[in-house]
Amino acid sequence: MADPAATAQGARPTVSFIAVYVAAAAAEIAGCFAFWAWARLGKSVLWLGPGVVCLVAFAWLLTRVDAPFAGRAYAAYGGIYILSSIAWMWLVEGARPDRWDAMGGALCLLGAAVILLAPRG
Fold it and tell me: Which of 50, 69, 88, 102 sits at a 20 to 30 Å CA gap from 96?
């Protein structure tokens, strides 16, 4: 899923990578939540199967990011993950984010953008 525009020297990643990051975040959060539901909410052990599948999908999705270093791809992903976690808290768990959640998420997203979009020579 390498983006030809992103592979050219000095080119910036495109929106397609944001979609991969968002999909990876959804898979990671769903997988982790399955374990949370089993361990903390008393859900059936059958929740663990789909949780493992989601976590495998998460790991695979991060390999689709066209980045020269895994660490940079993971670091940039972190901001998307945090914002996605706040959205999960709101949409799935029903807890409305407060202003501190919103400001922290925005700050993390800015940090991810700096890592991902910085001009590198």
Answer: 50
Q: State how far the Cα of 65 lies from the Cα of 76, in Å rounded to an integer.
A: 10
Contact partners, residue 33, CB within 8 Å, separation at least 6: 51, 88, 92
pLDDT tens by residue, 16-55: 888 999 999 999 999 999 999 999 999 999 999 999 999 9
Q: Of 56, 111, 53, nearest to 81 (Cα)?
A: 111
Tokens standing for 11?
């080119």
Is 92 exposed, middle or buried, given 0-12, 13-18 or 19+ CB atoms closer than 10 A?
exposed
Q: Which of 103, 51, 113, 52 is nearest to 80 (CA)?
A: 113
What residue has token string 């990011």?
65
Instruction: Provide the whole-model pTM.
Output: 0.76
